[in-house]
Specification:
heterodimer; A: 300 residues; 2 domains; two-stranded antiparallel ribbon; B: 255 residues; MetI-like fold; globular
Chain lengths: 300, 255
C-alpha cells in the first residue's frame, strides 16, 4: 500500500524551458571533444609531422638519418654520455632518496611526516632554472664547496666541479630526488609492517629484518623509481646545458643544436625519435614492473 | 636515530643550495662570493630599471595567467569527461592528456616550433600560451581528477533528479566541491608556465622573451647578481602563491 502511494507522487519538474534547451543531450560530449582536439591538434599532430622528417625526406622514405644516429662517432659519443650520466644520476638519486622514503614510512608523527614531505616537494615547484643556476654559483672554483674544502685543508687547489659530468650529475640528482622519493614512498607505504615485526619476533635483528623482509618488498618501488628517474634524466635539457661543458653534451642539447645551429631538421627528428622510443619503452617497463608508480598513476 | 640525522642532513643539502642565492642577490659586489663582502640592493635596482628584465617579467605574468585559465578549463573538462562520461578508449584518452608529463620537453619544443612557425605563432604571446597550456594540462588533469574521485556522486544525482540541468549541476554542485583542487591546479599551471624554458627557447622570439628566457640568456653570457635578484623574486613569488593556496584550502576546510 505504502509503496503504491510513493510511486504515485509525481516528481515536480521545476526546470524552466530555457534550462531544458541548455541540456541538449549531445552537449556533454564537448567535454571529451574539446580537450581531445586541443591536445591532438597542438601536440600530437605537431609531433607526428616533425617525427615524419626522420624517415621521409625529399627523396621519399629513408632510414639514413636513423642509421646515422647509431653510426656517426659524434652522435654515438653523445648517446654514450647521455646513458652514462643518466645511469650515475639514477644510482645517486636512489641512494639519497631511499632513506628519506624509508623514514617517511616508519615515522609515527604525522606532523613531521608532512614537514619532510613538503620539504621534498617544495623543490619541485621552485624554478628549475633557479635550482640549476644556484649550482653554477656553488660549484664554481671560488664557490662555497671549493672554499669549504680548501679551508678544511682537504684540497689545496680548487677542484673542477663545473662544466663537466660531475656538475651535471650533482645538478640533475638534486632535481630528480622528489620523483624518486614519491615512487619509493608509494610502494613502501603499502608494505605490511607486521611482516617486519614478525621477522623480529622470530629473532631477526632489526637490520636483518630490514634486509631480508622490508628491502625485497620495496624492490618494485626501487625499479619503477629508477626507471622514471632514468627516463627523465635521458631527456633533460637545461641542467646539462648549463652545468655541462663541450665534452659532455647530452642528447637534448644535440637536438637543439641541430635545429638552431645547423638547421638539420631530419637529423634532429631522427634523434628525437630515438629518444622518444627509448622513453616510452622504459616507461612501459616501469608501468609493468609496478602499478603503484605515482607519476604514471597520477597520484602526485 | 642515525637515519633521522642522515635525512635531516640530506634535506639540508636539498634545500640549502636554493637559499644561497638570496643573500647573494643582496651582494655589493659583482662576483658571486659567499658570504657576500657587503650588502646592497643595487641588483634589485638593476632588475627593476632594466626594460629587458621588466618586459620579460610582464610577459611572463601575462602568459602564465592566460595559460592558467586555458589549462584549467580544458584540463577540468577532460577530467569531467573521464569521470562522468562513458566512452570507449577512455584509457587512451587519459594517456593522451597525461603524456606531456613524460614526453621529453625538447621533443615537444621542436614539434611545436615546427608547426607554430607554419602558422606564424612563433614569437607571439598566444603561441607561448598554447605551448605552455599543453605542458600544464596533465597537472590540472591529475589534480582535478583526484578531487573528482573523492566527491559523492549522489549529490549530483540528487540535483539532477530535482530538475537541475547537467550544466547547472556542474556550477552549483560539482564545482564548489572541487573548488580547492581547481584553484590548486590553476596555480600549478601558472607556475609551470612561469618557469618554462625549453619550449619557450623555440617559441619565444626577440619580441616575446619571457623572464626565464631573459635569465637563460644572461646565464650563458654575462653572469651578474641581477640573475640572483630575479631568482630570489621568483622563489618568493612561488612561496607566496603556495602560501596563498594553503590559506584558501584551510579556509575552505573550516567552512
Amino acid at each position: 500500500m505504502t509503496t503504491k502511494l510513493k510511486t504515485e507522487v509525481p516528481v515536480p519538474s521545476l526546470a524552466p524551458p530555457l534550462h531544458r534547451l541548455v541540456g541538449i543531450p549531445g552537449l556533454k560530449w564537448l567535454l571529451l571533444l574539446i580537450p581531445l582536439a586541443y591536445t591532438v591538434l597542438l601536440l600530437y599532430y605537431s609531433m607526428i609531422s616533425v617525427l615524419k622528417l626522420s624517415v621521409y625526406d625529399e627523396n621519399g622514405f629513408t632510414l639514413e638519418y636513423i642509421r646515422q644516429v647509431f653510426t656517426e662517432p659524434l652522435y654515438l659519443k653523445v648517446l654514450g654520455v647521455t646513458l652514462k650520466t643518466a645511469c650515475i644520476v639514477t644510482v645517486a638519486t636512489l641512494l639519497i632518496s631511499y632513506p628519506i622514503a624509508y623514514l617517511l614510512v616508519v615515522m609515527e608523527s604525522q606532523r613531521w611526516k608532512k614537514v619532510v614531505m613538503s620539504l621534498v616537494m617544495i623543490t619541485l615547484w621552485i624554478s628549475l632554472l633557479v635550482r640549476t643556476f644556484t649550482w653554477t654559483v656553488i660549484l664554481q672554483d671560488q664557490g662555497v664547496i671549493n672554499k669549504m674544502l680548501i679551508s678544511l685543508g682537504l684540497i689545496s687547489e680548487p677542484i673542477k666541479l663545473l662544466y663537466n659530468t660531475t656538475g651535471v650529475v650533482i645538478g640533475m640528482t638534486h632535481i630528480l630526488i622528489p620523483y624518486m622519493v614519491l615512487s619509493l614512498y608509494a610502494v613502501m607505504e603499502g608494505i605490511d609492517h607486521r611482516l617486519v615485526q614478525a621477522a623480529q619476533g622470530m629473532g631477526a635483528r632489526p637490520w636483518q629484518a630490514f634486509i631480508q623482509v622490508f628491502f625485497p618488498l620495496s624492490l618494485p618501488g626501487v625499479l619503477s623509481g629508477s626507471l622514471i628517474v632514468f627516463v627523465l634524466g635521458l631527456g633533460y635539457f637545461i641542467t646539462p646545458a648549463l652545468l655541462g661543458g663541450q665534452g659532455n653534451m647530452m642528447i637534448s642539447k644535440l637536438i637543439q643544436e641541430n635545429i638552431q645551429t645547423t638547421l638539420n631538421w631530419s637529423m634532429a627528428s631522427a634523434i628525437s625519435l630515438v629518444l622518444l622510443l627509448a622513453t616510452f619503452l622504459l616507461l612501459g617497463l616501469a608501468a609493468w614492473v609496478s602499478r603503484l608508480s605515482p607519476l604514471l598513476k597520477g597520484e602526485k | 636515530m642515525w637515519l633521522r640525522i642522515y635525512v635531516v642532513l640530506i634535506l639540508f643539502i636539498i634545500i640549502a643550495p636554493i637559499l644561497v642565492l638570496i643573500p647573494l642577490s643582496f651582494s655589493s659586489q659583482i662576483t658571486f662570493t659567499f658570504p657576500p663582502p657587503g650588502y646592497s640592493v643595487k641588483w634589485y635596482e638593476a632588475f627593476f630599471d632594466n626594460s629587458q628584465w621588466m618586459d620579460g617579467l610582464w610577459r611572463s605574468v601575462i602568459t602564465a595567467l592566460l595559460t592558467a585559465i586555458v589549462a584549467t578549463v580544458i584540463g577540468t573538462m577532460a577530467s569531467l569527461a573521464v569521470h562522468r562520461l562513458k566512452f570507449p578508449g577512455k584509457k587512451i584518452f587519459t594517456n593522451l592528456i597525461v603524456a606531456p608529463m613524460v614526453i621529453p620537453v625538447i621533443v615537444v619544443g621542436i614539434a611545436m616550433y615546427h608547426t607554430f612557425s607554419m602558422y606564424k605563432l612563433t614569437n607571439t604571446i598566444p603561441g607561448l600560451v598554447l605551448a605552455h597550456s599543453i605542458l600544464a594540462l596533465p597537472i590540472v588533469f591529475v589534480t582535478v581528477s583526484a578531487s573528482l574521485k573523492g566527491i559523492d556522486r549522489n549529490l549530483e544525482l540528487a540535483a539532477l533528479s530535482l530538475g537541475s540541468t547537467p550544466i547547472g549541476v556542474f556550477f552549483k554542485i560539482t564545482l564548489p566541491l572541487i573548488r580547492s583542487a581547481v584553484i590548486a591546479s590553476a596555480l600549478f599551471a601558472f607556475i609551470t608556465s612561469l618557469d618554462e624554458v625549453v619550449v619557450s627557447i623555440f617559441i619565444a622570439g626577440a619580441q616575446t622573451k619571457t623572464l626565464p628566457i631573459v635569465m637563460w640568456e644572461n646565464m650563458r653570457t654575462q653572469v651578474d647578481p641581477t640573475i640572483a635578484a630575479a631568482s630570489t623574486l621568483l622563489i618568493i613569488g612561488t612561496v607566496v602563491l603556495f602560501a596563498f593556496q594553503g590559506f584558501t584550502r584551510s579556509k575552505q576546510k573550516t567552512m
